Amino acid sequence: MNEQQQTLWQFIQQQAGKLQEQTLQHIGLTFISLCIAVLVGLPLGILIVRKKQFAGVVLGIAGVLQTIPSIALLGFMIPLLGIGPKPAIVALLLYALLPIIRNTYTGILGVDAAVKEAAVAMGMSKWQILFKVELPLAMPVIFAGIRTATVINVGVATLASLIAAGGLGEFIFGGISLNNTNMILAGAIPSALLAVIFDLLLSMVQKVSFKKLKRVVYAFPVLLIVLCLFYIIPAKSEGRLTAGFTPEFMGRQDGDLGLRSKYGLKIHTIVISDAVMYKAAFEKHLDVISGYSTDGRLKAYDLVVLDDDKHIFPPYYAAPIVRDDALKKFPDLEPTLNLLSGKINDSVMTVLNYRTDYLHQSPERVAKDFLVANKLWRPERGGNDGIVRIGSKIFGEQYILANMYSMLIKGYTDHEVSTKTGLGGTKICFDALTNNQIDFYPEYTGTGLLAILQASPKTVNEVTVNRDSTYNYVQRQFESRYQIKWLKPIGFNNAYALMMRQQQARKLGIKTISNLKQFLDKK
Amino acid sequence: MIKVDKVSKYFGGVKAVDGVSFEVGEQENLILLGTSGCGKTTTLKMINRLIEPTKGSIYIHGKNIMEQQPEILRRGIGYVLQNNGLFPHYTVAQNIAVVPNLLKWDKQKTEKRTAELMEKLHLDASYLNIYPNELSGGQQQRIGLARALVSDPPVLLMDEPFGALDNVTRSKIHAEFKALDELKRKTIIMVTHDVQEAFELGDRICLMDKGKIVQSGTPAQLLFNPVNDFVKDFLKHQRLQLEFKAIKLIDLWELLPELNKEAKASSFEAGINLWEALESFKFNNGETINISKDQNQIKTVSFEQLMTAFYQYKNHQAHE
Ligand SMILES: Nc1ncnc2c1ncn2[C@@H]1O[C@H](COP(=O)(O)OP(=O)(O)OP(=O)(O)O)[C@@H](O)[C@H]1O
Ligand SMILES: [Mg+2]
């Protein structure tokens, strides 16, 4: 059983400092980008009222920006602006533009024509009409746009944590990968609350009578700037090394916690998604990252693994985990999946990963080439004896494995296959399995031990003496707790590793994690 | 004072205004009258350059308006719109102070002038700090008038200023309008499609149709000497009432009996029209009223005597 079931409240109390920091960062991110969006969007909105021939183009571009998926937009920003707050703010700003421009435009156009005519007839100049008549009367509509933009920004800002800009997304995504519901809620509830509160506040602003409008118009920018100040931009400290760790790594014993307790490593750390981490290291935005030992990008970006001389990263097996009732339903599934066992060692996996991650070959092709080369491939039988559902997490290695399993099942059995690839993190994948959404997916013994079983440090110490003891422990526990079976290990061992750029490591003479600590302490 | 010279305005193929010419004298009240869509509003808006004419020119005080900066020109011309066009986000006081602020008056002067106008327009000073939407239509229209009058511009343009009001309110405002000394000093061009209103308020009337002026002249000229059937038809509705409004007591002066009773009846200037004189019998208990001309000549007449004089006058017109 879980060592002790922590309540959400206990978690929040324990992490109060972090929660406060993240909340303030979240508010800051939201409002800095909102501030800039207002500064850009309002004049643009006014411009297209004056020069209607541009209205279509400007609204069109802003509209297209809005439809780019937020993760993709953040991804586009990295080559241009690197990682951290800058690209996050720009991305948020782009999302906030459309509602502000559009509402400024429609708000001003919607001002009663008779009132505008009266203003002209009384001899007001264009600017006087704009500031004394059009803008004040369009203000409720413009505020509605700002309100929409705020709510969008509070939501999208959770993704900022994926590119090391902080915010409540750190808890949310950390929680998802660590299978920690309390952590997810500790991020999700405040961010939902922020959205509701800001929406409410702005809706009140929107409804104020003209009498108070003036005061609001002056107070609003001041408030906006104050809120912006919440975000103390986490500057990259000069001359020192910066580490970028995934949210999952931050919360694991065989991760940041172990680095601190066993090595005493103190390094300036930012939280980042593993999708962009390697590239950021390559582009020198980061110096040390938490990678996977079999990741293809290791090779692609010329990174080197630091030797884990105090053994905090125990070696782990990868193996498919299957629900017992699926094994009962498809008796030929287990032998089919076991065809792969022992076939892929570390270096083979790294090469396969390299081919998808860096050479951008499709996982399907890489999978087929491998099976053919190992004489495992067979043409599809085209049977229709039930559907086996395969899941995979959201990175290359898992895609390749899912494709191999799919081909094996189609070639060796009469079952059909449906694949649900790209299930966000461990939690999402594992929940899909226990909730009978999928039948199996490839998992790692280390993740099973730490993220799913959430074993206590004492247990971890006892069972991680070698690969097999970990495997046996995890297998037993999964069977009794979840009625899920670990099949035979595939062969490779995917563990966490600290990595640096080869060139920098050589220059600084860092080969092991202890070297790194000594180097950091010298400074 | 104002000279409109062969002015046309085309909207694409539509000739909204087609070669219109007229002049308005100092302190005269000219009415642009006509059916919907005949080009009245367009004509009016060209005078303060809300619309630029396609052809022709307009002079105010002998100066071509196209040679002046539009903002400066407009600050010297009062403008009253049909649905008042008050600024909903300004209080009544702020609305009235718009032009003074543009002219950079000091606060005291604006306040004094505002108070004066509020009184003249029978508006309670407590309205100053409320917003237009808290006022009735008639009150709003008066605020619109106050806003146009505040800087005492010599010229006033009005586009169906009383169009949105019910009949009772409208005739009340008409009476006030005529009594207002502020307006007597002004050159006014007013647009309306209401014939009664035109006859009641206008010194002269330009009757328009399809962008052109069909006839212009005093109410009596239009009524008794129409240039064509269009004018005759336009005025045939409630003709008797129009005739009463077109004829002033001064026109009947010679036809009224000389006898002078010096009764204690109410007194009127000979400048009022017959309609007003006849109406006054409704509200006064007396059998007769006193009419004064040039301040020293006074005649006392009864209702019947006025009507007799009216029929004699009409006969006379018909034979001319
Ligand atoms: N901005 C415009 N664009 C195109 N056509 C116009 C425009 N303004 C007016 N018109 C046309 O010009 C003609 C005269 O319009 P105008 O507003 O001057 O009429 P009006 O006499 O004031 O009518 P009403 O009594 O209904 O107010 C109409 O046929 C109208 O459709
Ligand atoms: Mg009109």
Automatic annotation (TrEMBL), chain A:
Subcellular compartments: Cell membrane
GO terms for MF: transmembrane transporter activity
Example GO BP: glycine betaine transport
Presence of keyword Cell inner membrane: no
Superkingdom of the organism of origin: Bacteria
Statement: the UniProt record of this protein carries the keyword Protease: no
Keywords tagged on the record: Membrane, Transmembrane, Transmembrane helix, Transport
Residues annotated as transmembrane: 27-49, 56-82, 88-115, 135-163, 183-204, 216-233
Main localization, broad class: membrane
GO cellular component, one term: ATP-binding cassette (ABC) transporter complex
Membrane topology: Multi-pass membrane protein
Domain ABC transmembrane type-1: 23-202
Annotated SUPFAM superfamilies: MetI-like (SSF161098), Periplasmic binding protein-like II (SSF53850)
Protein family: In the N-terminal section; belongs to the binding-protein-dependent transport system permease family. In the C-terminal section; belongs to the OsmX family.
Entry protein name: Osmoprotectant transport system permease protein
The organism of origin for this protein: Mucilaginibacter gossypii
UniProtKB/TrEMBL annotation, chain B:
Coiled coil: none
Domain of life: Bacteria
Keyword NADP: no
Pfam family, one: ABC_tran
One of the record's GO molecular function terms: ATP binding
Domain ABC transporter: 2-235
Record-level GO BP terms: quaternary ammonium group transport
Protein family (similarity comment): Belongs to the ABC transporter superfamily.
UniProt protein name: Osmoprotectant transport system ATP-binding protein
